[in-house]
Amino acid sequence: MDSMYLDSPYSNEDIVDSDEIKFTDYFTKNLKHFADSFNKNYNDLCVTNFDKEPEFKKEFNTVIDESSIKCKRKSKKNFYNSISAPNKVRELRFIDSFYKSIREYHGFISRIDYENEFIFATMHNLKNESDILKAQIEFDDIENYESEKHLIQIGAPFIWIFGREVISGREQKVSYIRFRRMPTWTKSRIQDIEAEAEETADALSKLFSKS
Amino acid sequence: MPFQNSSLKVKPLNDEIELVVFGKGVGECILVHIGDLKYILVDSFMNPDTKNPVSLDYLNAMGLGSENIELVISTHWHKDHTQGLPELMNKNGNTKFVTYGIITNDTFLKYLKYGTKTEDKASNDYVEIINMIMNGKINKDNVKMAVHNKLLHNYLPGILSHKKKVEVYSLSPQDSETLDYVLDLKLPDYGEAKTTIVKDNDISIVTWIQIDDVVILLGGDLENSSDPSKGWDAIVNKHSISSLKASIFKIPHHGSVNGHNDDVWIKLVEDNPISALTSYSSSDLPRDEDLERIKSLSFETYLCGKLKDNDKDIKKLQKQINQYGFDSKITRVSNKIGISRFRRQLSSPNWSEEVFGSVQVFK
């Protein structure tokens, strides 16, 4: 879901400051109602969480369309006074609801067995430090192996994603292993690094020669 | 949580030597108590539960702290050996720090700086330490450059309450090794892609700790070389520190066959010593044949940090992976800390052993 629109009555009494906007009960109720109907409509598309039964979280983030607030938030008073029309909620984003079924591991190659066409890798789940996997990955499992081949070397970083996600209301299966394409060294970058290293070497040599 | 164990919290006696080996699958750390609650730290990794260096959690559990560490040896800059070293040095800048003479070499520094730009954590740790030396956070007079057979730290007899002498030597790297190492460093050229820089264990520091007539040999990650003037052959051939042999051996390079040298077991360690090692799950070390070899040469073998977890969820995950069209096989890497602790009063002929957490013991 890219963005959704919701017209809503708006009261300024619960606006606390320019950074954090608290909604009135009325406004919140409207959003929840919207969320519920969304939930109902898309319930069939809510994918199975790997660990739990299908669920739909009713938490949501809202972002006010700044352009519809006809004021610059110089002061709270000005801000309160300036709101004259219902504001559009540009985005209603359901936190993680559609992405909970995605598992994402970041790994690096520790060994390559060309004969049997395997790579051995250690993979880390960035959301759960204790979830570290060791994998024996077949070359065939690597998406676009031919074009990725040159990237396969010991220490090469890759990402492994699998699961299901909902994009624009459609459920999709996602599964791929892709190697990270590191940016190339530029001449200026190399010069900067080398100059920095030479400076450090010089400073350290002077430091230790003093003693 | 091994640090909650009540027997772990018991401090060593002033005249009790202690060797503590910590492992986590990817991570190695060693503490040696030389007497009077003075410790030597060799390498470091972080405790994922507390986000502290594991050595600090251990010392804190006993009511001690970083001030009890008076010498830090960084055997080499692989990330399973460096994590937490900057934090420890930051807490106590008066601690002696052992590294290499090549830290002032501009090629080596370029190599490290390139490493930091390729998100190499170990290079970042090392550069952080170098910056601490430059800005005076680590006193330059406390920085020791390790080379073969160099006395790094000592106490003359009568200084510590056990009245015995303490000597800490580096047995490596050899001069030729560091020179060749710098010459062989490959720096990237422009137009090349950034890749993770793979480094060697060629110049890993091996440490010989002698307290009275008790010797502990810590093998770092040093491997064998085809050149007899390098690697373990060079250490054996040039060894002239003492005729004593080590009764405890921290096996080099996670028990790999590349780190094994028959002459070390004949000339540097006692027959059937106690062997301690840490696993390195990324490369499946030690392999079964490595463990068999080490067990056959040792009185007892302690492996800290298991390679695999017997996790029920892993079967479910494997099934899901297959459902998504992958034929790959996975195992869960154990992330649990294992601690092997060996203590020995100087008047006693034997070591006593205790294990906490994820440790496999082979007797």
Characterization of the model:
- The complex is a heterodimer of chains A (211) and B (363).
- Chain A contains four helices and eight strands; from the N terminus they run βαβαββββαββα.
- Chain A has helices at 25-42, 76-82, 145-148, 187-210, and strands spanning 6-7, 60-64, 88-94, 103-113, 118-125, 132-138, 157-167, 170-179.
- In chain A, the strands form two sheets. A five-stranded antiparallel β-sheet of chain A has the order 6-5-4-7-8, with no helix packed on it.
- Chain A is elongated.
- Chain B has one domain (2-362): 4-Layer Sandwich (Metallo-beta-lactamase, Chain A), CATH 3.60.15.
- Chain B is built from ten helices and 19 strands.
- Chain B has helices at 54-61, 79-82, 85-91, 106-117, 121-134, 175-184, 231-238, 262-268, 288-297, 313-323, and strands at 16-23, 28-35, 38-42, 46-47, 52-53, 69-73, 96-99, 143-145, 150-155, 166-170, 207-211, 214-218, 246-250, 269-278, 300-304, 329-332, 338-345, 352-357, 359-362.
Radius of gyration over C-alpha positions of chain B, nearest whole angstrom: 20 Å
SS element count, helices of chain B: 10
Separation, N- and C-terminal Cα atoms of chain A: 65 Å
Q: Segments of chain A where pLDDT lies below 50 for 5+ residues?
A: 1-28, 37-99
Order of strands across the biggest sheet of chain A? Answer: 6-5-4-7-8
- State the low-pLDDT regions of chain B, or none: none
Classify the beta-strand content of chain A into a percent band.
25-35%
Output mean pLDDT of chain A: 62
Q: Mind telling me which CATH architecture of chain B this is?
A: 4-Layer Sandwich
Q: What would you call the structural class of chain B?
A: alpha/beta
Count structural domains of chain B: 1
Largest interface, counted by CB within 8 Å of the partner chain's CB: A-B, 52 and 50 residues
Shape of chain A: elongated
Distance between the termini of chain B: 25 Å
Rg from alpha-carbon coordinates of chain A: 26 Å
| N-to-C SSE string of chain B, H for helix and E for strand | EEEEEHEHHEHHEEEHEEHEHEHEHEEEE
- Determine the number of helices of chain A (DSSP H or I, runs of at least 4 residues): 4
